[in-house]
Amino acid sequence: MLIVFLAIGSTDLLFALDSIPAIFGITESPFIVFTANIFALMGLRQLYFLLGGLIDKLEYLKYGIAFILAFIGVKLVLHALHENDLPFLNGGEPVPVWDIDTITSLVVIVLSMTVATLASLAKMRREHRHIELHDGHPEVVSDDARAASEEK
Comparing 9-18, 26-35, 57-66, 104-113, which segment has the lowest mean pLDDT? Predict the structure, then answer.
């Protein structure tokens, strides 16, 4: 078991080292790079299991996460065009595109997670809102089960 923990820990460390150049693309401060990697190492494993459990319960959460990943991809492409250094694209000059700032990114991420969570909770409530009495005991009946019992 010790070998497994060492393998997982070293893999975590290697992936953290792999992300250092990406963080230096965002900021030049070594303190921010170091602390970001330390916090990522501490919280990534727990966040994975948290999201894994929530995806089973919140049906639309995977769509919210997919939207966030697509948004980040578009943001990276726009940022690369905004700071163009490629000689074959626009003569090496920056392409005049909208650069998405940090506040806008934060708002989009929080809003998409909120909408996905609220939509999932609304669907769960819709599916389990009908409470009927069977043999004197309350029983939660979904819309599908209620419609099937009304057809009989």
Answer: 9-18
